[in-house]
Every structure is written in structure tokens, then in C-alpha cells.
Amino acid sequence: MAGRFLGKTLATVSLSVALASVTLKSLGRCSIAACSNSFSSCGFHLNSNTMSGSNGTKENSHNKARTSPYPGSKVQRSQVPNEKVGWLVEWQDYNPVEYTAVSVLAGPRWADPQISESNFSPKFNEKDGHVERKSQNGLYEIENGRPRNPAGRTGLVGRGLLGRWGPNHAADPIITRWKRDRSGNRITHPISGKNILQFVAIKRKDCGEWAIPGGMVDPGEKISATLKREFGEEALNSLQKSGAEKRELEEKLHKLFSQEHLVIYKGYVDDPRNTDNAWMETEAVNYHDETGEIMDNLTLEAGDDAGKVKWVDMSDKLKLYASHSQFIQLVAEKRDAHWSEDSETDCRGL
């Protein structure tokens, strides 16, 4: 009993910290770069007014995980009001819909079996062979043999489109450069007066939304390898290149991904694919091409899960997939680049 309570407490505290760092609404017009209490290694800003992960009593950033219909289906989630998202809020009449996609039940190599299968004994909250079942937000609860989403109720149980019970780990490479004119000079925004930062964005084939080119971490794969692989596959169409082209591309990518970088975020993601028993977590990392010379030698070409790819100016007008807009804002703030036309960017009022 003590262990169960400790797990619940740790999950609540650690998730609150992680979600606070990516939940930027409560920061108002504050610039993360100007705050003295941000984590220097990744630009996170913590604020006591942001959501508290499991108790559901504060502002909730667990929104896309409650949307209907569920992606790729006509399945409607049970409605979960804001005040009942948190598991610590008693809700005896909670009756979530059960759904796991046929593509997952078919048993592809990237998916777990059903919990009910006798030969399946997952080791939750730890490394399970080559499969990472630890959450970046700390310990999560197991209820009736199933992991419980640390961010709260979603109105749907099962795995939906996600392969793993519990955390499904992804990596999102944010590749940036300064926007420049034909003479090579940085372009500043006429209102904010700050330099405009651009990032490589893809248009997802599955939902048509623009996003950071990222993907799932393969079992046993290092995050750094996933970041480079996914960018190559989705933004440079590496899977369709010849052997010689792949070797040349690998050399250029090595130059880009071997330089200093910023870990922008690690943890739970508010994703429309999330369920009560399976959820997305990611590590978003910024690789910045200061001079633009590296990316000038790489031709963007959509591939794999991407329908289109292009350079996009960072600003608060962006509407991106899942929590990607928040990740992009963190990069802009950390690089002291243009984000908003609102001039009130001082944190001193907090």
C-alpha cells in the first residue's frame, strides 16, 4: 500500500513539473528567456498556476487527448469535463469506451500483445528487455493490470493506435535557421524587432496537420539515432535514396546532428492518440544551423509519413499537431527570436 501511494505521489509531482514546462498559456505574455527561474539546460519555465497532473484542480493541458472522434476512426470518447480529468477526483459513473485499432491488434512488431494474453508479462515502470516502459515523468499507476495515464482520464481505454501499453516514446528533432534576405542578412520582424527563426515542418499524411518531423523510438535505439533517422526519413526522403545518395546524406546529417543542441522538452505529450492506458511521450531537441550553410546543402523532400515539407517562420500564429506549437515557442524564446507581435514580454509581473 505504501509503495502504491508513493508511486501515485511521484507520478503526480513529476508530471506536474513536466506539463508546467510545456503549458505556456499560464505564462501570459511572459518571455521564458527573460526569466531567472528557468532550467538553463532546456529553457523550461515553471509556474505554480499551471496544471497539476493528477488532481485536475488547476488549468488543464490535457485537451487533445480528449477529442473525438478518435484519430483514424469514428469512435467517440466518453466526455470528460475538465474538473474530472484527474484520477484523484472521484467519479464512480466514469464509463470510458474501449478501443484498440485493428492495425494494433494484428500484432505488428512495434506493438504489444493484449494484456489478457497468457504469454505477455510486461515489466511496467522499468526497462523491459529492449522496450523502454519507464516514463520520463516518473512512476505511473497500474490498475487491473493496465497502466494508467498519469495526466488523467481521456474517455477511452485500450491502446487506440498506439502500440505499447503505457508510455510510447518518440523523438522530435527541431531543425532551425535564421531567416535571411537575398544578401544573407538576418530578417527582423517589423513589430517585435527580433530576428525571425525558421524550422523544418512536415505535413502529416494521417491527419493533414503541420508538425515537427519526428517519430517513434525503436526498441533499443538511442534517442540521438532516432532524431537523425526520423529527420532523414520524413524531411529528406532518405528511404528512397540510392546507396551512394544515402552515404552522402549521412555525412551531411552527421555534421548537423553532431553539433551542440538544446533539449527543449522531455515527457508526456497531449496527443489525440492517447488513451487511459497508452500515451505519447517525447524528447524534443533543437539543432540550430547558425550560418545556414549546413541546411543550404540539404534539399528538403517529403518522405515516409510526410506529405509535404518546408521551412516555416516561427510565430504565435502557428497551429501545429499535438504539443508541437509549445515546443516551437520554447525554442524561439530560448534563441531570443521573434514569437509574438505583443510587446509585453517581461516576466517581472509573475
UniProtKB/TrEMBL annotation:
| Annotated signal peptide | 1-20
| Keyword set, alphabetical order | Signal
Q: Does the keyword Repressor apply?
A: no
Q: Which CDD domains match?
A: NUDIX_ADPRase_Nudt9
Function recorded in the entry: Hydrolyzes ADP-ribose (ADPR) to AMP and ribose 5'-phosphate.
Protein name (Swiss-Prot/TrEMBL): ADP-ribose pyrophosphatase, mitochondrial
Segments forming domain Nudix hydrolase: 178-334
Per the UniProt record, one Pfam family is NUDIX
Region (Disordered), start-end ranges = 52-77
Residues annotated as coiled-coil are: none
Superkingdom of this protein's organism: Eukaryota
Stored InterPro entries: NUDIX_hydrolase-like_dom_sf (IPR015797), NUDIX_hydrolase_dom (IPR000086), NUDT9 (IPR039989)
- Gene3D superfamilies, per this entry? Nucleoside Triphosphate Pyrophosphohydrolase
| Subunit and interaction comment | Monomer. Interacts with GLOD4.
Could you tell me which PANTHER family the record lists for this protein? ADP-RIBOSE PYROPHOSPHATASE, MITOCHONDRIAL, NUDIX HYDROLASE
Q: Which reaction does it catalyse?
A: ADP-D-ribose + H2O = D-ribose 5-phosphate + AMP + 2 H(+)
Q: Does the keyword Signal apply?
A: yes
The molecular function terms in GO held by this entry are: ADP-ribose diphosphatase activity
- Return the GO cellular component terms, semicolon-separated: mitochondrion
Q: What is its EC number?
A: 3.6.1.13
Similarity-based family: Belongs to the Nudix hydrolase family. NudF subfamily.
